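Lecture 7 notes: from sequence to structure.

We start with a single chain of 493 residues. Read the sequence below before looking at the structure.
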Amino acid sequence: MVVNITIDQFRSDYMEAFAPLYDEYGFKRLLRGGIVYTNTAYPFSPIDRASAISSIYTGTTPYYNSIVGARWLNKETLRPVYCVDDDKYTGYLTSDKSSPKNLSTSTIGDELKVATNGKSIVYSIAPFRDAAILSAGHAADGAIWIDDNNGYWCSSSYYFKTPTSWLQAYNSLNSLTKIVEVDWQPINRLSGNFSYFMTGGMQQPFKHKFTGTRRFREYKSSGLVNGSITDIALLCFNSNAMGSDAITDCLNITYYAGNFDHKPLNECQMELQDTYVRLDREIGRLVTEIENKIGKKNVLFVITSTGYTDEENVDYAKFNIPAGTFNINRTSNLLNMYLGAIWGQGKYVETCFGPQIFLNHKLLEQKQISLTDATKRSQEFLLQISGVRNVYTSLQLSSDNNQNTYKIRNGFHPERNGDVLIEVTPGWRLINEDYQEDQLYRASFIQFPLIIYGTDIKSERINTPITIDRIAPTIAKAIRIRAPNASSAEPLF
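Now the structure, written as tokens:
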């Protein structure tokens, strides 16, 4: 059996800092007994949960797997698209309609299904819809997540043609409606006396109640959610007799290690600390039960991070650090005026989304202006504007793969991204009034590990830098199947 564990927003510095509060069965056991790659990175930019998880499981970057982020702009309708939305499939215990149709390559679970002629059991468990579906891929038996509105563990008719008895029973007996009524308090009595963070001095222990219409969303971003994830993962494991025969099965799990309710760190320091302590215990509980049930030699655990964190709302100007506001809407209007001055009046800029500008291809064709010329002139103009660090054109990223642009190119997809991509200067805020975006840009590196633990693994600590696209081919080699169909990276061992 293979157990893939992806921890959303997991960081090496926090894992190490809170170690005095851990027991011996979670992170300490994995670090003692596994191969630990200390310098792991994503070979593309920008990173979010959807693009990160897609890349881990497909063994390739958004340039090939098509998932450039949680949302992108549909070029036909000029409306934002959520990465796993699909009106063809109704929700199971949810109103969300979902499928993995936008994921354009196979995953490690898909290849396992192909190799075993569908006999392998493959499930994905996550608190979030995108994480569950993108890690499950196209051929899995199920993708299960928590609905934001009713608190049920739910799925899509893409995976479940008929209701699954064990999931129905769990929802009836362990309703999150009752679970969220429990107050969230530190699990370790020493938490109030231990603080890793510099700001604010010693923190007071906290106590949270989950109430109102957002209670399930808040719960999903708390340390308590990891207990629910372990419960449903172990139920799935036991109910489907995973790992009990000679055919390899695969269980994909996403845990959460980010800030509570996505708040600034200085507002939730003790909550984050408790989240790591609880995460340590839940991973220990998961590993112990699976090993006890099928034997340590029969299971391979692969643990890593989504490699990003929610950005802080830092006021750099208060400390005289260079900063500013980059308004993409105003910039688009200026660019339109500039192009109009060259080629005559017209709406040359169709719209903008995030730091991307979409040009009006029909108008360019009517005026017999080449896209190469239009994007090149746009690039030259935008480079002169404050808050712009660099500008890339879609044609440049489609044809150019040099060392200076490879991360941006890997995170780009010609069908999903705009004609002009702007790299905002670190420390500046991007404002998009059309979509109520207000995002602080940073270029800082988040260090996170890759831990491989289990069958025939000898303990080793490796500091050589690696990239996450090598995880899928490594698992494929270990269980003797083909790597996902767009994965070209070599296995780690």
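The chain has a mean pLDDT of 93. Keep this in mind for problem set 3.
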